[in-house]
Amino acid sequence: MSKEKIIFPIADGVEDLEYWVTRMRLEEEGYTVRSVGLAKENVVGKNGLVIPVEEVIGESKSSDIVGIVLAGGWAPDKLRRYSAINDLIAAVNAEGKVIGTICHGGLLAISARIVAGKKATGSLGIRDDLVNAGAIWVDESAFTEGNLVWGRVVADIPNFCRELVSALARQKS
Q1: What is the three-state SS of the chain?
Q2: Would you tell me how many other CB atoms lie within 10 Å of the CB of residue 24?
Q3: pLDDT value at 57 more than 70
Q4: What per-residue confidence (pLDDT) applies to 3?
Q5: Within its chain, how far is the Cα of 169 from the centroid?
Q6: Mind listing the pLDDT tens digit for each residue in 77-96?
Q7: Catalytic site residues?
Q8: Structural domains of the chain, ranges and CATH numbers in brackets
């Protein structure tokens, strides 16, 4: 099994299914997956599931990971206020590593300033935010644009996971 590391920035209100299903799929592929948060304490997902924070934001460096997944829910709006997470996402992007973004996770991609000129999707609730940040909105279930993997909503998690696993496999080769 691989020890390549992928992180999920999380906070209270993260979309539980986008976090847990995607995490389990990546672990199934052999990745080491860690949740990172503002403090090393449990967070409660949007649907009430408890998620332990395994690392504090700021401990992870882009050179230590092969990818990052930005799950939705209400957490992205909370996390985007911290320069440490925006800087980390921007660094991962600058290195061309895989960034998976689903639903409201696009808010973090916007604040990291990595969407301008790129095709993007997510919850309809952030369509205007993406467009105003210079992204090209498309209403598709899931797709890859360069190193960015996009998923629309919870119902699209299977397609998002397929795209994410494929992008990570291409990155290895």
Answers
A1: CCCCEEEEECCCCECHHHHHHHHHHHHHCCCEEEEEECCCCCEECCCCCEECCCEECCCCCHHHCCEEEECCECHHHHHCCCHHHHHHHHHHHHCCCEEEEEHHHHHHHHHCCCCCCCEECCCHHHHHHHHHCCCEECCCCEEEECCEEEECCHHHHHHHHHHHHHHHHHHHC
A2: 12
A3: yes
A4: 78
A5: 17
A6: 999 999 999 999 999 999 99
A7: 103-104
A8: 5-172 (3.40.50.880)
Share of residues in the chain with pLDDT > 90 (%) = 95
Dist. CA 160–CA 4, nearest whole Å: 20
Residue labelled with tokens 């960015």: 148
What is the average pLDDT score of the chain? Answer: 96
pTM over the 0.85 mark: yes
Is the pLDDT score of 172 beyond 90?
A: no
Q: Which residue has the tokens 């996971």?
A: 161
87: its two tokens: 């800087």
Per residue in 23-40, pLDDT (tens digit) is 999 999 999 999 999 999
